[in-house]
Specification:
103 residues; mainly alpha; 4 helices; 0% strand
Length: 103
C-alpha cells in the first residue's frame, strides 16, 4: 500500500497514508473502548434483579459497536422497575420481583 501511495504522491503520499492509518486505528480503539465501558455500566444498571445480565451486556456491547447504544436493551428491563403497577409492557425486573414473592 505504501508503494502505491509513494508512486501516486511521492513522499507526501506515503506520509498521508501512514497518518490515515493511525487515524483509523485511533477511531476504532475509541469506539471499542467506549462500547466496552457502556456495556459494563449498562450491565451494572441491570444487575439488580434482572435475569441473564451477561447476555444483555453482550448484546449491549454489540449494539454499541454498531453505534446504536444501550437504549434498546435497557428500556425493557428498567421500565418495570417501578412497583405497584399491573399494566402490560413492564420489563423483566418487574417479573423477577413477582417471582421472588412468597406465595
Amino acid at each position: 500500500m505504501l508503494r502505491f501511495a509513494r508512486w501516486l504522491g511521492g513522499q507526501r503520499g506515503e506520509e498521508v497514508t501512514v497518518l490515515a492509518g493511525k487515524a483509523i486505528r485511533g477511531i476504532a480503539l475509541g469506539v471499542g473502548v467506549t462500547a466496552l465501558v457502556q456495556a459494563v455500566l449498562g450491565g451494572m444498571a441491570c444487575g439488580a434483579g434482572v435475569p441473564a445480565v451477561a447476555v444483555l451486556s453482550l448484546v449491549m456491547f454489540i449494539l454499541c459497536l454498531a453505534q446504536l447504544g444501550v437504549f434498546l436493551v435497557l428500556m425493557p428491563p428498567l421500565s418495570g422497575s417501578t412497583e405497584g403497577s399491573d399494566r402490560l409492557g413492564h420489563g423483566s425486573a418487574r417479573l423477577d420481583a413477582r417471582r421472588r414473592q412468597p406465595r
